[in-house]
Design goal:
The complex is a heterodimer of chains A (256) and B (310).
Chain A lengths: L1 H21 L1 H4 L1 H22 L1 E2 L2 E2 H31 L4 H4 L5 H27 L10 H25 L5 H15 L12 H7 L3 H14 L6 H25 L6
Chain B lengths: L1 E11 L5 E11 L3 E5 L6 H9 L6 E6 L2 E2 L4 H6 L1 E4 L11 H11 L4 H14 L15 H13 L5 E5 L7 H16 L3 E5 L3 H7 L2 E6 L2 E7 H6 L3 E8 L15 E5 L2 E7 L4 H10 L4 E6 L3 H18 L1
Parallel strand pairs in B: 3-8, 3-9, 6-7, 7-8
Antiparallel strand pairs in B: 1-2, 1-4, 4-5, 9-10, 11-13, 11-14, 12-13
The chains are: A mainly alpha (256), B alpha/beta (310).
């Protein structure tokens, strides 16, 4: 039976990867272009006037955050659009009638989101080499944080897709929740610049922990302790995974 | 062991609609079974519950003695279903749809490809195997769904109106294909609005109406309940008025050379021909006005409607 589940998992994963690779112009290129624009505007033009941040050039400071932002939006976007698309055109029923446990469905879609997040992350990192020279302090931390963050936002995208009843519903969360939290998550500034009150408020933003632990992997310094950040990310992964399993087991959003 | 056994199955939707009111149903292994009923009777809800698309409110469903609740992995491995509406990814190539579905059932890719090639050839889709599914005609899409349902070699196949919107020539070739699958041992449950299809292929039948099974018997026994049939008779010579027949009171003139007569089970066709011959009327040809099962179906479901309204 394990072999049966393994084949089902590979099938879902292959389908998911094929889906975003087939339309790579729509899935891989736009984040690369967007990040290049961020580098030009915030890094080259405005960044020169800002000077240093946390002891490093502003361009170097924002680079990990921009990569992380791309990973977050793409791993989320991949799963939310794929799962909701399957619901909308009803081919999610192909999975529902098959002997596939919900755990395998969740893992398959999350692997698809993770793969897109990592692919985009690599592409964006390569583009950033055109604008800044960077060294990697701890590549394992970089990979671990990128993978965990992708998983977390793939799970978040899945929850959004399960509840979504229209295409509008899959844009509301990215627009009104994800983007503000990302921009306020320490990509463009260090929270040490903020007054004490806003520093404490910022600590409630989970994206802050991801951006800072990712930055730690590149620079070896961060606003947040690495283990604390990994703990927060791990906690949210466990929470969202539990919610996904509960929703699928109950058939919420997919079964009448 | 039954291929399908349903006990006290109930479904009440969130809107309060009671789609199934505690139905019981058994389908023997190897059977070709018809599940018939008017629109909104509860057929698709019942099939949806069996195949895992609809949550049941109460009751038990067993596939080859495996509960769809406690042994859902093994139970679903034995089941193939063809839904009423197209539910594949229109942008996927035809062959990939079949291979991926095999993958969901744990069929290794090489074997799934082999089976996909077999069914694509059998169902006349071979030359379209690399096309995106959206480019197929309606009939081709129906055949694709049948091939997809068979890719994991199920022992029970449920077809929800598989020939809807399909032309008669194609429908007949699909009948032959399904009979062949049934002959090879696959139990088939069919819902259809084409009752001649059910009468031709199915050995047993259940009629569901207003969420209840109102008849469950062999096709032969069911058709025996039909106590009258209407025949259309084509006459050699023109006639001007309705002939007066002593034993047949429901006679209607269709045009100058054809009449319609209701023949009760107490009377034979010979009686009818003899009475007409006595009046000098020669019958050249005759046919049933409607399919026998259709006639019975309309009577049963209409009766049930009256009961529910009373």
């Amino acid at each position: 039976m394990l072999r049966q589940f393994w084949i089902a998992y590979l099938t879902i994963t292959r389908k998911e990867i094929y889906r975003f690779m087939r339309i790579w112009v729509q899935t891989i290129i736009p984040p690369v272009v967007m990040v290049a624009l961020y580098f030009i505007i915030f890094g080259s033009l405005i960044g020169q006037r800002i000077g240093e941040m946390d002891g490093m050039a502003y361009m170097d400071f924002i680079m990990p955050g921009l990569v992380m932002m791309s990973i977050i939006t793409n791993s989320y976007g991949n799963v939310v659009s794929s799962f909701y698309g399957a619901k909308y055109s009803r081919h999610i029923e192909e999975l529902q009638v098959a002997p596939v446990p919900n755990l395998v469905i969740v893992l398959g879609f999350v692997t698809g989101g993770l793969t897109r997040g990592i692919c985009v992350g690599i592409a964006v990192t390569l583009v950033s080499l055109l604008f800044t020279e960077f060294s990697v302090y701890n590549p394992w931390v970089v990979l671990l944080v990128a993978a965990l963050t992708s998983c977390l936002f793939a799970l978040a995208g899945l929850i959004n897709a399960i509840f979504a009843n229209s295409f509008d519903d899959i844009t509301i969360i990215p627009t009104f929740v994800l983007t503000p939290l990302t921009y306020l998550g320490g990509i463009f500034y260090s929270i040490r610049m903020l007054p004490e009150f806003w520093q404490q408020v910022s600590l409630g933003n989970p994206i802050l922990y991801m951006v800072n632990s990712f930055r730690y992997g590149f620079r070896g310094s961060s606003d947040i302790e690495l283990l604390t950040a990994l703990g927060v990310i791990g906690f949210f992964i466990a929470l969202l995974f539990g919610i996904c399993m509960y929703l699928l087991d109950r058939g919420i959003g997919i079964r009448q | 062991m039954y291929a399908l056994e349903i006990k006290g199955l109930r479904k009440t939707y969130a809107s309060g609609l009671e789609a199934l009111k505690g139905i019981d149903l058994q389908v023997e292994e190897g059977d070709f079974f018809a599940l018939l009923g008017p629109n909104g009777a509860g057929k698709s809800t019942c099939i949806g519950i069996i195949s895992g698309l609809v949550n049941k409110s109460a009751g038990e469903v067993r596939i080859f003695d495996l509960s769809i609740d406690s042994s859902f992995i093994r139970a679903r491995s034995l089941l193939g279903s063809v839904p009423q509406e197209f539910n594949f990814n229109n942008f996927e190539p035809v062959e990939e749809i079949l291979i991926n579905q095999g993958g969901f059932y744990g069929v290794p890719k090489a074997l799934a490809r082999e089976r996909a090639e077999h069914y694509l050839a059998q169902l006349g889709l071979w030359q379209h195997r690399r096309q995106q599914a959206r480019r197929l005609s309606g009939g081709m899409k129906r055949r694709l769904m049948i091939g997809r349902a068979l890719i994991h070699d199920p022992r029970l196949l449920i077809l929800d109106e598989p020939t809807a919107g399909v032309d008669i020539e194609l429908r007949r070739s699909m009948w032959d294909f399904l009979e062949q699958i049934n002959d090879q041992g696959t139990t088939i449950i069919l819902t259809t609005h084409y009752l001649e299809e059910a009468e031709r292929m199915c050995r047993n039948v259940a009629i569901i109406d207003n969420g209840e099974i109102i008849r469950h018997s062999s096709m032969k026994n069911l058709l025996r309940q039909l106590n009258s049939e209407i025949f259309v008779l084509y006459l050699r010579d023109d006639i001007a008025e309705v002939p007066r027949l002593a034993s047949f009171d429901n006679v209607r003139l269709l045009d100058y050379h054809s009449i319609e007569v209701e023949v009760h089970e107490s009377r034979s066709i010979n009686d009818l021909i003899s009475e007409l011959a006595a009046l000098g009327i020669v019958v050249e040809r005759m046919r049933n006005k409607v399919n026998r099962l259709e006639e019975l179906f309309v009577k049963l479901t209409a009766k049930n409607d009256k009961l529910s309204l009373a």
